[in-house]
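Lesson 9: reading folded outputs for more than one chain in a single document. The general rule is that every protein is listed as its sequence immediately followed by its structure tokens, and records are never interleaved. Here is the first one.
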Amino acid sequence: MKGFWQSFRLPARHLWFIGLVTLTISGVLLRYQREYEHPERYGTHRWLGFEVFESFEHKWYDARMASWRGPIPYRRDIVIVEIDHESIEALGKWPFPRAFHARVVDRLREGGAKLIAFDVDFSSNSVLGPEDDAKFAAACARAGNVVLASNLDEKSDQADDRGVQVDQRLIFPIPELEDSCLATGFTPVVEDLDAFIRRIDTAYHDEAFDETLPFLGPMIAGAAQGLTPEQTGLWMRNKLKGKQRIPYIHGFQTLINYVGYPETFVRFKYYYLATAEGKPGYSDLVATPAALRKAFKDKIVIIGATADELRDNRPTPFFSGKDMPGVEIHANAAQMFLDQTYLRRAKSRLSGLVLILATLLTALVTVLVGKPVSLMAAHLDSRLSFTIRGRPVHFYGLAWFLLYLLGGMLPPVIGLTASNQYCFARLSFVLPLAYPLVGVGVAYLLGLVYMFLTEEQERKRMHGRFQRFVAPTVLTEILTNPEEAPKPKKVEVTLIFTDLQGFTTLSEQMEPEEVVEVLNDYLDRMTNIIFRHEGTIDKFMGDAIMVIFGAPIPQVDHPLRAIRCAVEMQEECARFRAYGRSRGWPDFFMRIGVHTDQVVVGSIGSSLRMDYTAIGDGVNLAARL
């Protein structure tokens, strides 16, 4: 266990890899992230593949809002009067006569509505003539709490309604209606590249007149709190006392904190209110003053299209195959401003720091877990490996990859997503997720390849150095921790020295080929026994053998292993003598010295050649024994 925890060390030679990976990946992804955070700076001059990264970030944002955090409580005092397909069928072709809108306003006023807002275009005169406009204007004036929609004509080269030449032409309701309503608010929404609505413009600042003109959602929120349009404009500029600072992304754009899926807010059908008493479609739900008050007393009523044929439905983060009507998007925005539950997106410096740290930590972790993963993979391989028709089946590679996935990539991913979700759900703080996750993934893959090549190179080097001297089981342990095995250290070991009595004299009486045959047979037999007891062959010296027990892999019972090995070697030597007699060889007798002592072990030699060996007085004593 101690060796396992000690394996979590960072070799200095890996630092260059960590630095290079962090700088390269972070540098590239930071550029993409800047494009996402500041599209107004880059326009169409964007790097190849930006859409993929932006789509990835958007989908993670949607998942955090809709799936991870989920819907939040909606305000019961916000009510939608929907111009749906049933209303169009009941009342006839769209656009409806403005006398219908007048009837709706009068009935909502009768019901005690706190505020009435229209997400409907009134920038042109009624096709039914001035009398139709006059009826609606009179109803708005009687109510005194009606907010109408205005619009922006993007990239217009014309003058606005006040004769000022601007890039964005301001389109207001016809003067008769504008004069009779409480306020107007712009209705355009901001589409991302995938056409989803995740943010809105809160205001348009008119440089020519130094006016800040709010959009419909914040205008509804301001009017519902008794603010004038000018005060609401100051609020949108973060200059109104008593209001939280609105966290803008850039310009006057901010994220919409949606409360839930489409049809979250209470809805009433438009034709319930627009149909005259006694006519087909007249609803008992709003038939009496009491029913009207029950439905609309002190409510913020927003009127707008929900029918598919009117094409005002858009996808939002709460998308489940059904788009959200524009009127409900404005209702979500109105609730956000009323409750001041804004979503704050991390500034560029913080988001960049998150990206760099995520990449750095992943590169660091992939290097740090290299040794522990090798240890665990070797352990699992020793437990799971088996043979089929005499061929060994190993699981080291598969175990190494899976453990590297668990130890190298999952911790950064889990830490990043968990902290990200906590910030989003608990703090309403939006940290970047997709770009850091890409950084984590790329850093992990590069680290995986780098560590695999590094470990494989080290394993081959150690395999070549030790395979001739140690048992296969010991070799496996060495390969799992190749840096520790050859390190010089003073340890207690048990040494065995053996030789064949009188072999030098006897060998002079034999042919050279026969001498080699005798030695090879003898050493083969002894090597098998040594490996069976997991000893390390230091060296062969003619007919002599030097064996180490307790190094390079520590063995608590190394004295016992050495004694058992020596006894078995003597027994095998007796069998070897019997075999030699059948071949006409002289009798050979083995002498063995066994000694336990403190010695220095490690790779010793020159820069051209090194061997793993033991040195010290204990070695000399064992040799003399």
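And here is the second record, again sequence then tokens.
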Amino acid sequence: MMRRFLAGTSVQGRSIRAFEVLPEREPGSWLLLLGVVHGDEPQGRWLLRDALRRWWEEPPARNIGLVVIPCLNPDGSAARTRVNARGVDLNRNLPTRDWTPRSPRESNHPGPAPASEPETRALLQLMEGYGFRAILSVHSMRRYQINCNGPARDWGEALAAVCGYPVTDDIGYPCPGSLGTYAGAERQIPTITLEVDSRARMPEILRVHSPVIRRAVEWWDRIAEGHGR
């Protein structure tokens, strides 16, 4: 069963669409799958929309529910910019203990205050409402990797067995105000940032990473069923 709902609206009034993917029984826990936090990284939308098309006919889990947001940053996506319509990097705008108003690069502008942006607040409301067991956020960069925050290393290794990506605990540069810090490091929610190869085209992205998304869901579904890891 699948239900579409409005998670929030962007600075320019665009809808932030979300989908619940439900098992037949009452879900014991919830997994968040997130795409296009940065508007110039469409790969997450490609992957998650493809997954939703398949899951419409065949739900991927028997024990957990999914919340899927193919595009958190619709204004940035429309403009093909990393930042939202106010020039804020949403992955530097979460209310972490290390949040800072300063950034060495304009493209990482954290905003005037933590959670200043409506897109960020929509994400925070979902996190509070669902109490996600784990989070996977799809990004892209040339240095592709499975970046783990919080107790996510075993999960990350399981995904790496599918795609061959390196598993990292440090993405290589400071990310104050990021989702990985907010959810993973500070709240101990297993959080993975799946950094896919930014040079790959859509067919390659889907071929390599659709099985990764499937494995990400299966991992937590088996745990919820009591089979361990």
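What the second record shows: Residues 163 and 209 are 7 Å apart (CA to CA).
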